[in-house]
Amino acid sequence: MSTAYETACEIHKQEEAESAKFAPEFKTEAVRLARGEQGFAAAVRVLGISERTLRHWVDADPLSPMMTSGTPAQNSDQAEIARLKCALTRDKMERDVVAKTTEYFDHERK
Predict the structure, then answer these.
(1) Range 59-85 average pLDDT
(2) Could you tell me the residue ranges of all domains in the chain?
(3) pLDDT for position 28
(4) Which of 15, 39, 59, 98 is the most buried (most CB within 10 A)?
(5) Sign of CA dihedral 49, 55, 59, 65
């Protein structure tokens, strides 16, 4: 059973993978369409991308009024923190698997 944080890590990994598939020009055009007359939902349908991905691109756009942090360095730091938290969660799970495996085989030996 996965925790909410692990689920968030998986979503983050999927978004990064999906985001990496598209050229910067495509992302810029997608943001422009989302802000246009037809709106966000129409842009998602036309472009065939997930709503979450487009929302991420719109929020990350420097012209976005919704952008929470003011500098690219802060955004970069936040992305690095998220990546490190995911890695830490994965490492903890691996550690727990090793501990449980060791416990299991120690019990079998006795």
Answers:
(1) 67
(2) 4-109
(3) 85
(4) 15
(5) positive
